[in-house]
Specification:
Shape: flat
Distance between the termini: 88 Å
Largest sheet: 7 strands, mixed
Structural class: alpha/beta
CATH architecture of one domain: 2-Layer Sandwich
Number of strands: 14
């Protein structure tokens, strides 16, 4: 009888062990499946951040060069969605300084995009999104890029991914000058762009070097810091091809797929 009880306990322990193993395998399977699902979703979202065109909606994403609050060139993502609607303009922008200037750039981009494409923008809702990890000095200098993205969204077309642009946008589609060309060119190069579009006469820039100069005046030596201007070629300095464009029509030619 005692031997039968021991044998029964062993069988029960084996059964419990098998149950524990089965439960552990099921939990592991669930975890692995969830992780795979999350990766698939993440990949899908990443693809959607580039370009999605449906029957009544187009989502366009381009890289946007900027200068952060510390004076360093950085790159962020500009998303524009155009979908059938009532002519509303919706904006979601984080960490961007000069908000009023950015609003003006978006209004001007909407106007120029409508005039250029011949599309009645009052029949579309335009949704703009810019997100950055640092505070960006934005506003007017993003005007040309916002206009480019809006045009492609309205036309349901995908822009080239290796082209970036900086410049203000005027009501007639001309592109105005901006600051921080050298810093933006470096940022564009760092994120893989092969072509950087700038306003007319801004493919060359001026940087200032500070040097200490000392001179003798009688028996005294006087030293002071001097600021010396230096003209540079932005393309040679940064290693990215830089092309000047005067208006949106010229800029669009470089964003078009060949």
């Amino acid at each position: 009888m005692l031997e039968m009880r021991k044998q029964g306990k062993r069988i029960l322990n084996y059964i419990l062990l098998i149950v524990v193993i089965i439960i552990s395998l099921e939990i592991l399977l669930v975890v692995l499946t969830r992780d795979l699902s999350e990766k698939e979703i993440s990949g899908t979202e990443e693809e959607q951040k580039t370009f999605v065109s449906l029957e009544n909606s187009t989502f366009v994403s381009i890289k946007l060069p900027a200068v952060n609050s510390e004076g360093k060139g950085v790159s962020t993502i500009l998303n524009v969605e155009a979908k059938k609607g009532r002519g509303r303009t919706l904006v979601d922008i984080d960490n961007l300084l000069f908000w009023a200037d950015t609003q003006h750039s978006i209004r001007m981009a909407r106007l120029v995009a409508g005039n250029f494409t011949g599309i009645n923008v009052d029949n579309y809702d335009l949704i703009y999104n810019i997100k950055a990890n640092a505070s960006l000095i934005g506003g007017p200098s993003a005007g040309a890029a916002i206009t480019i993205a809006t045009i492609f969204a309205l036309q349901g077309k995908e822009p080239r991914k290796d082209v970036m642009i900086t410049g203000t946008i005027n009501h007639d589609g001309s592109i105005g000058p901006v600051l921080g060309i050298l810093e933006k060119a470096k940022a564009s190069k760092e994120v893989g762009a092969s072509l950087f579009l700038v306003p007319l006469l801004q493919s060359r820039d001026v940087v200032y070097e500070t040097k200490k100069h000392c001179g003798r005046f009688g028996s005294m030596e006087i030293c002071q810091q001097e600021t010396i201007p230096k003209k540079i070629d932005v393309s040679e300095e940064t290693g990215i091809e830089v092309i000047e464009v005067g208006n949106i029509e010229e800029a669009l030619e470089y964003f078009e797929h060949l």
